[in-house]
Amino acid sequence: MPSHTDAIILGGGISGLTTGFYLAEKGLCVRILEKSSRVGGSIRSERRDGFLIEFGPNTVLDTTPLLGELFQKLGIASERVDASPQAKNRYIVRDGKLHALPTSPLAFLKTPLFSTTAKLRLLLEPFISRAPEDREESLADFVTRRIGPEFLDYAINPFVAGVYAGDPAHLGVQSAFPKLHALEGEHGSLIRGAIFSARQRKKSGESPKNRAAMLGFQNGLQTFPDALQRALGDSVSTTCVLRSVSRTASGFSVTLESGEILEAPALLSTVPAHSFASLPIEFAQPLATTLDAIIHPPVAMVFMGFDKPPGGIERDGFGFLVPAKEKRQILGCIWSSTVFDDRTPPGGAGLTAFVGGSRQPDLARLDDTGLAALVLDELRALMGITATPSLVAVQKWEKAIPQYQVGYGRTMDAISRFENATPGFFVAGNFRGGISVPDCVKQSRAMADRISDFLQSHSLPKTHRQ
Ligand SMILES: Cc1cc2nc3c(=O)[nH]c(=O)nc-3n(C[C@H](O)[C@H](O)[C@H](O)COP(=O)(O)OP(=O)(O)OC[C@H]3O[C@@H](n4cnc5c(N)ncnc54)[C@H](O)[C@@H]3O)c2cc1C
């Protein structure tokens, strides 16, 4: 006998769990099916030998009030930790040295990170005309046109390596940085637009990314998905293998390898774009081909734990990013034990480096020993580290982050067309609406409203699991 529910959700990452939570809040019955033995997807934290290691995201920006509200509802607000004030300092490598990213107009004028020519070029920005609207520009073209090539090389290129592990020459400005693109469209200038947006945000309560608090949890970000799983109780099933998904007269039927059959009028996929094609959903094959084409470069995370201070420069910031022009072998490094307290044994230090991305995909595929040696060499060269780590942990993400490339709008259109043609089938995840954890949460909130509206507009009553 099949069991009935209002919505079946595939995937127990932050997108699937938060959508499930919001639907349950509306009084709807949900069932979340997660393939692996744990929830959280990309979010994974673990304590080893007294070090707290984040294997995926290290910090979350508090850019939406939804996060705080969720933490309260889940009873984890008291476990939240905010990054130390020092984490506001960020460094960029230029000519093999770390330079602080300027945070005030005076610091900007003084910094050796950008040449005088580049600084003067910035003054022209309000007078640069808009791009023609008939084509999407790459982020690299957009930045070069508006603020000049040096800011592309020494600000945007390393920033994009840190966020997307991507390449500005391929990311579409409209798709990957819609707000930046809108500033030009609406105000004709990034500088004028930034001033206007700051006033708007003050009214709405949203925080700009560069000023939002950076948060974590005492026991790592895994606290968040774990709390969602607890709140959702037996609505969440892990270690689920799907045997088939089919359409029925009243919605969808999902059969698991265990033999269990679930039926629901609404079905939401939140599995990563690169996993969608392997779902046993024959009627979704055209969409599977589209999602499979989204590029996800590999990234290796290498955590190094030191029992005692590792020597070298003072780690008084979030960490550093490396521009491609510098031709080094790491994308950047987070000074984890500066960002948050209590992440190491007393007197120790923790550093989290990232390798690979679309810049050097092959490096991300080195074996663990090779990765550790490469990272240590780079940290010695760039930071003057002298100690040997007492703990090294490596996590390889073969398909790390979806790249919102030029023309990505066509991918988004294909998803919408498929949803329209298949009423009750919904698609979400970090390849739609932003890659960050808060973007996924915002998207989940909107998705829960869409699913509940769909159920109501089809006069589908709330069911109760049998
Ligand atoms: C290395 C790295 C660093 C990052 N750093 C940050 C950061 O600092 N800050 C930030 O905000 N964001 C960061 N992100 C991005 C952010 O973590 C992710 O975009 C977000 O967590 C994605 O959530 P999701 O639920 O959409 O997808 P996922 O987390 O990928 O979850 C999808 C889930 O679907 C499951 N699944 C797959 N196939 C099936 C199937 N057939 N059946 C059932 N379930 C299935 C998976 O097991 C997984 O649990 C980072 C990402 C990575 C990889």
Structural class estimated from helices and strands: alpha/beta
> What is the CATH superfamily classification of the largest domain?
FAD/NAD(P)-binding domain
Number of strands: 21
Determine the oligomeric state from the structure: single chain
State Rg.
Answer: 23 Å
Describe the structure.
With 466 residues, the chain is of the alpha/beta class. It has three domains: 3-43 and 222-294 and 404-457, FAD/NAD(P)-binding domain, CATH 3.50.50; 45-86 and 297-397, Protoporphyrinogen oxidase, mitochondrial, domain 2 (Polyamine Oxidase, Chain A, domain 2, Alpha-Beta Complex); 114-204, protoporphyrinogen ix oxidase, domain 3. 35% of the residues lie in helices and 20% in strands. It is built from 16 helices and 21 strands. The chain has helices at residues 14-25, 65-74, 105-110, 116-122, 139-147, 149-163, 173-176, 178-187, 190-204, 223-232, 273-276, 285-292, 336-339, 368-383, 408-421, 437-457, and strands at 3-4, 7-10, 30-33, 45-48, 51-54, 60-61, 80-82, 90-94, 97-100, 214-217, 236-237, 242-248, 251-256, 261-264, 266-269, 299-306, 319-321, 332-334, 349-356, 391-397, 425-427. The strands form five sheets. The chain has a seven-stranded mixed sheet. Strand 13 (251-256) and strand 14 (261-264) form a beta hairpin. The protein starts with a strand and ends in a 9-residue tail after the last helix. The relative contact order is 0.20. The site of flavin-adenine dinucleotide (FAD) has 37 residues, from helix 1, strand 16 and helix 16.
Give a brief rundown of this model.
By secondary structure, the chain is of the alpha/beta class.
